[in-house]
Write a structure and sequence with these properties.
Elements lengths: L8 E2 L5 E5 L2 E6 L2 E6 L5 E5 L2 E5 L5 H22 L2 E8 L4 E5 L2 E5 L6 E3 L5 E6 L3 E6 L2 H14 L9 E4 L14
Subunit structure: Part of the 50S ribosomal subunit.
InterPro entries: Ribosomal_uL6-like, Ribosomal_uL6-like_a/b-dom_sf, Ribosomal_uL6_a/b-dom, Ribosomal_uL6_bac-type, Ribosomal_uL6_CS
Function: This protein binds to the 23S rRNA, and is important in its secondary structure. It is located near the subunit interface in the base of the L7/L12 stalk, and near the tRNA binding site of the peptidyltransferase center.
Length: about 180
Amino acid sequence: MSRIGRLPIDIPAGVEVKIDGQAVSVKGPKGELALTVAAPIEVKLEENQVLVTRPDDERTSRSLHGLTRTLIANQIIGVTQGYSKGLEIVGTGYRVAQKGSSLELALGFSHPVVVDAPTGITLTVEGNNKITVAGIDKQAVGEVAANIRKIKKPEPYKGKGIRYAGEVVRRKAGKSGK
């Protein structure tokens, strides 16, 4: 039995979970999220808890059991607390400015790079080198943060570029002079 999949998910106050066949929808104070559960996995609602079960010990059922439980738990956390990911811009002359709901990044290119926030995601700027990506969908927050980081990844010689908050960039020694 899956150690993660067999754990019940407690539903906090103010959160409403609806199960309609394979469709699970979670509604809370921050918004609403929906999930379609893969075929062999069954989701039940019992006494303010969500239970995820699998019918057999087939390989696909075992692999989807813990995943489904985690996805539903992440949705419940998302609609109550939300998710956020921090990014830092490191480099001389590198900076970010907020233009409405989008960001304008100056990263040493010949032009400023404009990043628009997708629906459900808020981009905020602190100072001129810190970005916070926030939203209720954990996967969407991570994807937007990864796409922003992809614009200018940190390089190993000087460490310039966009990195996650707290990310350690492994540095290399440069050329040695004679």
